[in-house]
């Protein structure tokens, strides 16, 4: 299967679903990691242009740990809007270029505006990419892919319909997260959180719910034209 994971920022996928993405890659599926924003504002001291280079390198290094291609859409932190036509076109071209069978992204009720906007853009464009007349850069998407929402950052108001046991891949998940050193600093300073400990705690909580040591939770978006019988192929 072609699996496309789309986060708003370069570290979002590592935080919420990297254990599952690692398992999918190990199972032989094609897994593409995408972040919508270049991460230009996620630091107090580092200037934007330098920070973009740092964060792109961090994202590439994280993807290399599982042998996955990493794509940046080049949008800006805090400036992602679901009704922006140029952003919608960029997302349509992404969907058409990857031709995914399955897409994983933020839940519609996630905690900050970029995450919520990306969720809506993914929902909209995974359908629109199958319709002619929007972009001719790539062939029209052959199908509307299955859509899954990854866990909110602390699990608030998120009740998984699917759990994936990521005990065997949790170390790789944390290794991927630690590649984002600039964000370990930012999240400590901006949110007063040790994000590695934070992620491990949530993984344990979902593991208790799932009956294993570590788990990641997801909600499948169920709607007509989506392949609703699809489950995680791991």
From TrEMBL:
Domain of life the protein comes from: Bacteria
Record carries keyword Hydrolase: yes
Its EC number(s): 3.5.1.-
Gene3D superfamilies the UniProt entry points to: LmbE-like
Class in the EC hierarchy, top level: hydrolase
Keywords: Hydrolase
Pfam family, one: PIG-L
Keyword match Repeat: no
GO molecular function: hydrolase activity
Listed name of the protein: PIG-L deacetylase family protein
Species the sequence originates in: Paenibacillus solisilvae
């Amino acid at each position: 299967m072609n699996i496309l994971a789309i986060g708003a920022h370069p570290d979002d996928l590592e935080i919420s679903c990297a254990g599952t993405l690692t398992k999918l890659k190990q199972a032989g599926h094609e897994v593409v990691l995408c972040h919508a924003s270049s991460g230009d504002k996620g630091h107090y001291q580092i200037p934007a242009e330098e920070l973009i280079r740092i964060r792109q390198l961090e994202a590439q290094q994280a993807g290399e740990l599982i042998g996955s291609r990493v794509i940046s859409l080049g949008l800006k932190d805090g400036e992602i809007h679901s009704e922006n036509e140029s952003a919608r076109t960029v997302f349509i071209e992404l969907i058409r270029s990857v031709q995914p069978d399955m897409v994983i992204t933020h839940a519609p009720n996630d905690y900050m505006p970029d995450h919520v906007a990306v969720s809506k853009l993914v929902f909209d464009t995974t359908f629109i990419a199958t319709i002619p007349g929007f972009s001719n850069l790539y062939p029209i998407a052959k199908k509307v892919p299955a859509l899954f929402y990854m866990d909110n950052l602390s699990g608030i108001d998120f009740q998984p319909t699917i759990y994936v046991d990521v005990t065997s891949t949790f170390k790789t998940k944390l290794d991927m997260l630690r590649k984002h050193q600039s964000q370990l600093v930012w999240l400590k300073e901006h949110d007063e959180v040790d994000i590695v400990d934070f992620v491990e705690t949530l993984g344990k909580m979902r593991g208790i719910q799932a009956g294993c040591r570590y788990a990641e939770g997801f909600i499948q978006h169920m709607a007509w034209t989506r392949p609703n019988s699809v489950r995680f192929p791991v």
